[in-house]
Amino acid sequence: MRLWSLHPKYLDAKGLVALWREALLARKVLENKTRGYKHHPQLARFYASGDPLKFINLFLHEVYNEACLRGYTFDKTKVDIPPQPQSGFIAEFITVTDGQLQYEFGFLQHKLLKRDIKKYNENRALTADIAVNPVFKVVPGGIAEWEKVKILPDMDGAV
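-> structure tokens emitted (159 positions)
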């Protein structure tokens, strides 16, 4: 299970579909509708939020929005899509460290280098800060304790 902190716009088609499926599974876990995955490290920050269902639904909402922008037809009836905040932004956040974000971006680039070179190059051309799924707020720090570090890529995805 990989619940990317990165904004879903960085994902290729395969990654976006996988994120949707995995976030739906995460929601079932958070609702206690599965036996497995209850202690999956990717869920730690949702449990720690104090309102894990609210935040997984907000997370899914952003994935759904990205899918719609790309013309995909994800089934929004599979999740409780929260209403859009009137102000256009989420007032509460789960924190993610800048080190975690850098790790995830590099890890994604490593994956994209193998499966979608066009998306890899599109991401590589970024000049601004890496955007996050809006349920997260970036704070200073290293790679999260819950992360299972597999590679230590640089920003371009090289190992």
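Residues 155-159 have pLDDT under 50 and may be disordered.
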